[in-house]
Amino acid sequence: MQAAQDQPDPPAGDGGPGPRRGRPRSAAAERAILDAVVELLEAGEPLAGLSIERIARTAGVGKATIYRRWSGKEALFVDVLREIEPADPTVSGTAGLADLRELLESMRTRGLAQRSSVLLHNVFAQMKSHPRLWAEYHRTVIGPRRVAMLAAVRRAVDAGELRGDLDVELMDDLFLGPMLVRTVHRPDAPLPEDLAQRVIQTLLEGLAPKAQVRPEKAAATAV
Length: 223
Prior knowledge:
Elements: H1 27-42, H2 52-59, H3 63-67, H4 73-84, H5 97-116, H6 118-127, H7 131-158, H8 168-185, H9 195-205, H10 215-222
Helix pairs in contact: 1-2, 1-4, 4-7, 5-6, 5-7, 5-8, 5-9, 7-8, 8-9
């Protein structure tokens, strides 16, 4: 594999976006590193067996090139997961239930991806036996997703789409829970395209039976 060499830093004040981590000097080198990890995982290498040295050799870069971008294997592996998972949706940040629907739909598509991708399934299964990696994934990926969900619920309350007299965090859990059960705890459960809308609609309508008027009472009222 041809080595992906670092390039000089761009001049200060070039108006470009700030780097996501550290000071990446070469997009080609970063791409080669991410691809190398995926290549090794697809070849059956376990997460525990992937060393920075092995990754660097596969990518054709030096170990220092990796450490300039990631603090360690955990941070690198989380970014690899971001690469192979479906991308998080871009929500408006101003809507309530509409943004909430997009976020729930994103959970559904990630659940489908984990079911259909052997690589994703295996990586997630292995992650749970690596506490530091699992904690990093929760901190940098799951945590922000939950913040986005809670913010959407709060916007729905402010817009009058949801009641304002209830615990907002509890409402967030009620929306999140059904999709989490279907995608994580019940891997054989169906994930139909309208699931996000059905979850929202069911919660909005409530679970108590609709009030029914007895026929004799209805007749008396009509007289």
